[in-house]
């Protein structure tokens, strides 16, 4: 079978398509859950599930980062990507506090949830970032500064070191 190459633009479109499909799945599962057990109970269940997924991903990322020889510090979480580099539009924040300070101007998940007027339950998914970083390193404090599902123009987050924040 001959190798077929696609452009970066086509690859990004495919990743976005998959992201939109996963966001739609989350939407339907969450909506069904809310209709079945009530919104508040659904929020509790969804929150637990997202936190568990985040912890699993944080533990996996910790293993990858340590295996690559990086020091186990909160800021090294992103030394190896844990998300596709295509599909989301991400850049360093304009006045970055550190290497983890990012601005996300496009997220396929948020796009779907905004289209479906689903920001409240969709926003619960975003807590995966806090769970990932906390599991990666207990001194991690991933802070969401802005989120499109909260009405901001873009998402912005930074990982701060808890011990440095408390001084």
- Structurally, the number of domains stands at 1
Largest sheet: 4 strands, antiparallel
CATH-assigned fold name: Muramoyl-pentapeptide Carboxypeptidase, domain 2
The termini sit apart by 60 Å
Q: With helices defined by DSSP (H or I, 4 residues minimum), what is the helix count?
A: 6
Rg for CA atoms: 17 Å
Spatial order of the strands forming the largest sheet? 1-2-4-3
Structure description:
There is one protein chain. It is built from 6 helices and 4 strands; from the N terminus they run ααββαααββα. The radius of gyration is 17 Å and the shape is globular. It starts with 7 loop residues before the first helix and ends with a helix. It is α+β, with helices and mostly antiparallel strands and 167 residues long. The longest helix is centred in the N-terminal third of the chain and has 30 residues, at 8-37. The chain has one domain (8-165): Muramoyl-pentapeptide Carboxypeptidase, domain 2 (2-Layer Sandwich), CATH 3.30.1380. A 4-stranded antiparallel β-sheet has the order 1-2-4-3. A hairpin with an 8-residue loop joins strand 3 (140-146) and strand 4 (155-161).
């Amino acid at each position: 079978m001959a190798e077929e190459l696609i452009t970066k633009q086509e690859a990004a479109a495919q990743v976005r398509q998959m992201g939109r499909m996963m966001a739609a799945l989350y939407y339907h599962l969450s909506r069904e859950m809310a209709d079945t057990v009530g919104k508040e109970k659904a929020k509790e269940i969804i929150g637990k599930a997202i936190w568990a997924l985040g912890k699993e991903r944080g533990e996996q990322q910790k293993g990858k980062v340590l295996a690559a020889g990086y020091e186990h510090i909160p800021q090294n979480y992103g030394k190896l990507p844990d998300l596709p580099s295509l599909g989301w539009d991400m850049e360093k924040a304009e006045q970055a506090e550190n290497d983890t300070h990012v601005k996300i101007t496009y997220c396929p998940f948020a796009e779907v949830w905004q289209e479906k007027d689903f920001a409240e339950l969709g926003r619960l998914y975003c807590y995966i970032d806090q769970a990932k970083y906390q599991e990666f390193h207990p001194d991690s404090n991933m802070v969401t500064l802005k989120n499109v599902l909260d009405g901001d123009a873009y998402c912005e987050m930074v990982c701060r070191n808890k011990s440095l924040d408390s001084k």
